[in-house]
Write a structure and sequence with these properties.
Elements: H1 2-14, H2 16-36, E1 44-49, H3 55-66, E2 70-75, H4 82-87, E3 93-97, H5 101-106, E4 113-118, H6 122-143, E5 155-159, H7 167-197, H8 200-205, H9 210-238, H10 248-271, H11 276-293, H12 306-312, H13 316-330, H14 338-363
Helix pairs in contact: 2-11, 7-9, 7-10, 7-11, 7-13, 9-10, 10-13, 10-14, 13-14
């Protein structure tokens, strides 16, 4: 009995994959959940519309940027540039001061301050206007020297999601997560299944080239995943009322691109896996947690430590979520997210090439 237990210990210690699952996954999950999950907002770019540039408005702006929550996002010449700033993804909020702000405040009048936030992420928008509103109110209280001078209460305006419906944030993220996980998992077990059934040798000795095998594995799932994407979009529009303010054709084209990326990633995972169980575990561990935590689906990327922010750039869902929100909620075109589209194209090519090369190694 004792020797049998020792033998089992040695067997586990010699299996690198078992050691990774036993010790690597818990450490990785604790680090991801500990650093990525945060409801705080910091280092968010905020633009300013300040026609007066007086002492009080300058002091308020300085206090906001000194708080640690906000970063300068530039100064806009007028309110007409606000929506364009949001569409470009530069800023999450804009602070608009009224004309003659200091003069009106000193006269005992109530100058207006408007906080306009990008509410495509309603939780972040709520926190931003709350932080900024508290800073402005506290500073205005410090300036009150007469009882008739009112406290400045900022007005708030939420663009793209005036009702602050959380479904506007979750639906684009759910579309991304489902397409990524389902598409990648379906293909990740396809070649691994061929290996287990012993039919991989037949494919390898056939006249088919590695590219043809990879394409043959991917193409059927492209159609099935596209039907899945159509059903998700139909449900989000009819059941949850999430609008598609931009081009539906562009959204479908971007969805096909993302599906191709997810499928090619699944094929790559299957080429490096010896069996279906390994392929499934790699898909779950390498895709599910990073997709949910590091894509900006639930937790803003700006809140994460710099190493995780850098690592999140390798997550395809991060770029697709930006594209989906831009089309569905902001109604923008390809000119506003061509960089994200290019990143997805490059990632797709990289995984396809890597999968084909892996096949060539097996053939040799």
């Amino acid at each position: 009995m004792k020797r049998f237990i020792i033998k089992e210990f040695l067997h586990i210690f010699r299996d690198i994959r078992s050691m990774v699952i036993l010790f690597g996954m818990p450490v990785a999950q604790v680090l991801l959940f500990g650093f990525a999950i945060s409801n705080e907002v910091r280092d968010v770019h905020v633009a300013i519309v300040d026609p007066s540039h007086d002492v009080i408005t300058n002091a308020i702006v300085q206090k906001m940027f000194a708080s640690g929550y906000f970063l300068p996002g530039g100064e806009l010449s007028s309110s007409s540039e606000i929506e364009e700033s949001f569409r470009q993804g530069k800023n999450k909020m804009v602070v608009v001061f009224s004309n003659d702000f200091a003069t009106r405040f000193q006269r005992g009048e109530k100058p207006s301050v408007q906080l306009i936030a990008d509410a495509s992420d309603p939780n972040t928008a709520n926190l931003l206007v709350s932080y900024a509103g508290n800073i402005i109110q506290n500073y205005s209280r410090q300036l009150i020297i007469a009882p008739n001078v009112p406290v400045v209460n900022p007005e708030t305006r939420m663009l793209y999601n005036p009702a602050l419906k959380s479904v506007y944030m979750f639906v684009p993220g759910i579309i991304t997560v489902l397409l990524m996980l389902v598409s990648a998992m379906m293909t990740s077990i396809s070649i691994a299944r061929e290996k287990e059934l012993g039919t991989m040798e037949v494919l390898l000795v056939s006249p088919l080239k590695p590219f043809h095998i990879v394409a043959g594995k991917v193409m059927p799932y492209v159609l099935l995943s596209f039907i899945n994407a159509l059903s998700i979009l139909a449900l989000s529009y009819t059941v949850f009322g999430v609008p598609v303010n931009g081009s539906l054709l562009l959204l479908l084209a971007e969805s096909i691109l993302f599906i191709l990326l997810a499928l090619s990633l699944g094929i790559f995972i299957s080429t490096i896996s010896n069996n279906q169980q390994t392929a499934m575990m790699l898909s779950m561990f390498a895709l599910m947690l990073p997709t949910i935590l590091l894509s900006g689906f639930i937790f803003p990327v700006e809140n994460m430590p710099l190493p995780l922010q850098i690592f999140s750039t390798l997550m395809p869902p991060r770029w697709f979520i930006i594209i989906v929100k831009s089309i569905m909620l902001k109604g923008t075109g390809i000119a506003y997210f061509w960089k994200e589209t290019l990143i997805l194209i490059v990632m797709t090519i990289v995984f396809i090439v890597a999968s084909v090369k892996k096949f060539k190694i097996r053939l040799s």
